[in-house]
Amino acid sequence: MSLMETYQVLGNLGEFIGSIAILITLIYLAAQIRQAGRSTTFAAVQANRMERLAWFRSNRDSPYLPGIFTKVDAGDPLEEEENYRLQSHIAALWGFIYSQWIQQELGLTGRFATKDTGMVGMAISTPGAKDWWDNNADLIYPDEFCGYIEATMPTLDDARIDKYAR
User: Fold this and answer.
1) Helix (H, G, I), strand (E, B) or coil at 157
2) Looking at residue 165, what is its pLDDT?
3) What is the DSSP string of 86-122?
4) Which of 55, 103, 113, 125 has the fewest CB atoms in 10 Å of its CB?
5) Which of 71, 74, 148 is nearest to 115 (CA)?
């Protein structure tokens, strides 16, 4: 074999080894991207869970909300400050559901997403929440989210809503 042929064989061998190295690198990068996606999903689910726990704890530990709900259930009028607190609570509740919806729409929670139906049922059963939604939702939230909530509401029968009612 001549020197030129030897160089040609070595060059071909180098190209072959280089293409194998590139293929291995691409497989490795694909695995890394997949792992990063799993990590992102886990972080989103964990953040959503922590947000949900914080929300329920804030409701449980609130020195104001139980009294406000008791007054509303009894049909007693709320003072101005109590009404403000209730409206703020309702706005935060819808914001919480919106945050959860965004994570689902972005595909961050995947099959591990909590179901919004229960949260929407709880929201609707909160005194004044349905009225707040009807008066404010389209001013605040994107049409896609409003459509999603409007489509979810009819699926909740009265028995299901009563399940979450205070």
Assistant:
1) coil
2) 46
3) HHHHHHHHHHHHHHHHHHHHTTSSGGGPPPHHHHHHH
4) 55
5) 148
Closest CA to 140 of 107, 97, 79: 97
**Which of 138, 159, 162, 157 minimizes the C-alpha distance to 149?**
138
Give the count of alpha carbons within 13 A of 24, CB side only: 6
The amino acid occupying position 62 is S
pLDDT tens track for 35-73 = 887 787 778 777 777 887 887 788 788 899 889 988 988
What sign has the CA pseudo-torsion 141, 144, 147, 153?
negative
The gap from C-alpha 118 to its chain's centroid, in whole angstroms, comes to 14
